Amino acid sequence: xxxxxxxxxxxxxxxxxxxxxxxxxxxxxxxxxxxxxxxxxxxxxxxxxxxxxxxxxxxxxxxxxxxxxxxxxxxxxxxxxxxxxxxxxxxxxxxxxxxx
Length: 100
Hints:
rod-shaped, 100 residues, mainly alpha
């Protein structure tokens, strides 16, 4: 809506009487109250939306669940590799002692 008004103003389809609005105190007060009300309503809607997003307990998305499963799998693989490395080191130590 604001884009249409701006284009209409640029093309001189109509012009807003800015001097009349500033000169007339009643029009200025009405415009100020109207703008304030619109700003308050917008702020309330944004606040409700943000508080809903923050406080909602929707849990994890499927992507996040898959990432958590992959993390658990990676920990398991690291544990297995550390176990195999420990076995290999003990086996090489015992082989070195037998050769001596």
